[in-house]
Amino acid sequence: MTKSATEQTNKTRILEAAAAEFAERGFDGARVDVIAKRAGINKALIYYYYKSKEELLVLLFQDTSSDICALLDSPKIKELDFLKPEGATLMINMFLDVLESRQNVIRVVLMEI
Description:
Distance between the termini: 40 Å
Radius of gyration: 17 Å
Shape: elongated
Structural class: mainly alpha
Oligomer: single chain
Number of strands: 0
């Protein structure tokens, strides 16, 4: 694996671990050392890639927002006829699929509101 591929894998593991930790314990209760343990890396590596626990949370929110925007801009959505029940149902199902793939982040949002 190349250095950039390893870096990307580490970043992905960190963000996934952070999302799970935030979802379980809330932002204030989450600890960076536990996130590192979940990700299978050392704590220093988190701070090598990210400035703070806050940056992890912001990135998770931004990624989720980007996924939702990408769905809304997708050709599949633009082709749907929302006036027909099957079009509306398909759009809702597509939206729910995105939310399901980001359920830990959604849980954090609801927890922190």
